[in-house]
Structure prediction request, 256 residues.
Amino acid sequence: MPSTILHRPRRHRHRQALGGAECHVVVMPDADLDEATDALMGAAYGSAGERCMAVSVAVAVGGVGDKLLDKLVPQVRSLKVGPGTDPEAEMGPLVTRQHLDKVRSYVDLGIAEGAKLVVDGRGLKLQGYEDGFFLGGCLFDDVTPEMRIHKEEIFGPVLSVVRSPDFDSATKLVNDHEYGNGTALSMAVIEHLFHNPIGVFPNPAHSARGGTFQGHRPRRGRPVCVGRFYAADGAGRHADPADQRALHAPEGERLL
Prediction:
């Protein structure tokens, strides 16, 4: 962070430097898993995971975890990795050798912590690009909230699946994260949003820690964004929930 940002005086301005970010997708048991998988592939592995809103954690609620992995594993294994000049490449290299080494070290760490590496992209070799900063997609299962691969930002093509028994515990897991940056909810029933909100409405049991929240439900074979919520502003005040209850699909259909 440049010293001018930290030290130059500015009246009536807030400075926020979290130093990390973590985005979750909560997958409910009633979610359309084909749509959830497609969304996770783009959100986790697009730009090789090197963007602040990249999703690094999929929270599988109830018994949906095995079914979700059955969908994810073949897609992660079949990711076409290549240089940006290849029009068929689905994922390119990481930004530097130093960062490649860092991301690989997090994969090593996840194994040491006891997570199950179900797709290992560390052995990827591209003919003609042996010195490139390429890493195949990596996918972990059985990740727990205490593991560093969940607590810290990896900033690479690594997706962790955390199992959660119910929506309440999934909500708590998201809200308790130190670097909660954004959350999406994959579901079929819109009422999940208001049964136990994720950092949206003030809730004594699960207070908002900031960040953004999106909810999606399938409609005529495609997901519809039903709302984007700002849980708190830079000063840490809760967003006013008064205008958040009436949500509409893009076509104008009222959802609540």
Notes: The chain has one domain: 18-243.
